[in-house]
Amino acid sequence: MTELALDKRTLPDRSTVVGWLQNYGVYLGLAVLLLFNVFFTDHFVSGENFRTQAVQVSPVLIVALGMALAIGTEGIDLSVGAVMALATSITSLYLGYGPWLALVAALVGGAVIGLAGGSLIAFVGVQPIVATLALMVGGRGIALVLLPQLKDVRDPAMATLGSGSVAGVPYLALIAATLALIVGFVVRRTTFGRRLLAIGDSRPAAQLAGLPVHRVLITVYVCSGVLAAVAGFLATARLQASDPSSLGNLMELSAITAVVVGGTPLTGGRVRIGGTVAGAVLIQLLTATLIKHDLPSSWTQIAQAVVIVLAVYAARERGKR
């Protein structure tokens, strides 16, 4: 009996295991998926393949960074895909004046959508999912009005941005990594980041403490819109085409998956940028693995749905402790 009791004490309880999985499960899943591909996927271990994966994951990661900020305030931003579509339309319209002006115009468009969503949430009291859902529909509609059909993008600077690299590292991956470092620093080391987490933890308490809740919320959704616009601009450079009807479709799903799998709870009050990066890479690698093994694209969406359910379940179980 004594030995049995000792064995029970040495075994981790269920809540400990769930907590560990939420904190580190994304890294474990990523390691398992990498090992699977190393041994069972042809031509996986090659510089060209790694560059391809880095380029493809970059827009998802950039959008997920903004999504993480929104979720950290106990909100959500469903308009990110539409903002990408709007950004590609604006880029195409203004590219004749130079890529820098096109980029600024695209960022302004993303900021306006974010400002509209943040204002509805902060001042009108509309639920984040409702406010951003309306902008998701309206934003893509505006994008299609500006550019009704696919248009080729022929600009040397955009071509270099989309396919160029430094020491073998694609420009898109460098930009995504830089933005991840900046957002991580803002969340962990700045007053704005601490206020963001306090609002997500308890908005009424943050208001009673005198924090500028409205200003922080608006800033969060503006940042999310701007980051989504950056992703749309970079995706346009990579594809060398503007297609507002398809660019950014289901990007909300990929971004939310990356954030939740990375350990950021939907209940707010916490943002894990490192986990978000790992989550974005995991989702991209999972998609690439299914494609390389000749499985239908519909299986990718099913796999993402399963991953989301598992991640949310882990977060829910941890919250019961």
Automatic annotation (TrEMBL):
Record carries keyword Electron transport: no
GO molecular function ontology, one term from the record: transmembrane transporter activity
Topology within the bilayer: Multi-pass membrane protein
Transmembrane segments: 21-41, 53-71, 78-97, 103-123, 130-148, 168-187, 216-235, 297-315
Signal peptide segment: none
Domain of life of the organism encoding this protein: Bacteria
Record GO cellular component, one term: plasma membrane
Location(s), subcellular: Cell membrane
Keywords from the named record: Cell membrane, Membrane, Transmembrane, Transmembrane helix
PANTHER family cross-referenced by the UniProt entry: ABC TRANSPORTER PERMEASE PROTEIN YPHD-RELATED-RELATED (PTHR32196), RIBOSE IMPORT PERMEASE PROTEIN RBSC (PTHR32196:SF72)
Name of the molecule in the record: ABC transporter permease
